[in-house]
Amino acid sequence: MLFFTHLAAAALLARTSRLSTVWLVVGAAGPDAVDKPLAMAGVFELYHSVGHSALSLLVFVPVALYGRVGVAAGVGWASHLLLDTVHVVVNGRPGHAFSLLWPLLESTDPLAIPPGEFVRYYVGTPSFYLEAVVWIALIAVLLTRRR
Ligand SMILES: [Zn+2]
């Protein structure tokens, strides 16, 4: 999914939970904030590696023990992984979900294109329209006042 959609989804999640909006959004930004620079620097070949691994969630277990900030960041991070997995499955590349177990397993059908090029590839795919639903839901929630 597109980076800003992860942030929007985290904001939506904040509206339906008692978790911190800021830390949900920070957590949702995490996987891309970690993996994109690593791939662009040539550390890893693919844009889904350590940050997109479900094993990265283990970091949040001890952090969550210190309070709701860690829980919110971990839930935000997990939401990113879940939405990226939905995205690759909806777009017909389920083998890419194996990157959730990086470094134990790797994607069998990686895209391996940089973020800017990804946007051009992605617009108009089935997952792109699914993202539009996330944005419509966010706008609807934001237009609805809490009482
Ligand atoms: Zn991602």
Amino- and carboxy-terminal Cα gap: 32 Å
Q: How many structural domains in the coordinates?
A: 1
CA radius of gyration is 15 Å
Portion of residues in beta strands equals under 5%
Bound molecules: zinc ion
**Structural class determined from secondary elements:** mainly alpha
Shape summary: globular
Tell me how many strands there are. 0
Mean pLDDT: 90
* Uncertain segments: none
Please count the helical segments: 6
Question: Portion of residues in helices?
Answer: 55-70%
Summarize the biggest pleated sheet.
none
Q: What is the succession of H and E elements?
A: HHHHHH
Write a compact overview of the structure shown.
The protein has 147 residues and is an all-alpha fold. It has helices at residues 3-15, 21-40, 60-64, 68-90, 115-122, 126-143.
Layout: helices, strands, pairs:
Blueprint: H1 3-15, H2 21-40, H3 60-64, H4 68-90, H5 115-122, H6 126-143
Zinc ion binds at residues 31-32, 52, 80, 84.
Give a written overview of the molecule:
It is a single chain. This protein is mainly alpha-helical. It has helices at residues 3-15, 21-40, 60-64, 68-90, 115-122, 126-143. The protein has one domain (3-143). 59% of the residues lie in helices and 0% in strands. It is globular. The structure holds zinc ion. The site of zinc ion has 5 residues, from α2 and α4.
Which terms summarize this structure?
59% helix, 147 residues, 6 helices, single chain, binds zinc ion, mainly alpha
